[in-house]
Design brief:
The protein is mainly β. It has no helices and nine strands. It comes from Chitinophaga lutea.
Length: 113
């Protein structure tokens, strides 16, 4: 859903994890001055916005990065939006424990119009 006259949008995510309902929300905001998107995530368990991933698109590929923690250890986070096929874009998330030298993709979402 578009918000803020088109400079932002909101998406909701619903599934079940271990047979319990799980809900999440992504808030995406575009800064026209920097031409960067900030993507925030919150889930129904915590109700807190996570640190945003920040980045932009180069053609149909968007790359977004942040620094975060996993199990008490610092990690780099990369979100990739691949809209090479705009009818079936793919989102993925990867973590790097070594400053971006190696990445482990741990989540894919396949979308359809």
């Amino acid at each position: 859903m578009k918000i803020l006259l088109g400079t932002g949008n909101i998406g909701q995510f619903h599934t079940s994890v271990h047979n319990k309902p799980y809900a999440g929300l992504s808030l995406r905001l575009f800064n026209p001055a920097t031409r960067l998107w900030s993507i925030y995530w919150a889930n129904g368990d915590t109700g807190v916005l996570d640190i945003p991933v920040v980045g932009s698109f180069d053609g149909p590929i968007g790359k977004f990065y942040s620094k975060d923690e996993l199990n008490g250890h610092p990690i780099d986070v990369e979100f990739t939006w691949d809209a090479t096929n705009p009818e079936e874009p793919v989102w993925s998330q990867a973590f790097s424990p070594d400053g971006g030298h190696t990445w482990e993709t741990n989540w894919y979402m396949y979308h359809r119009r």
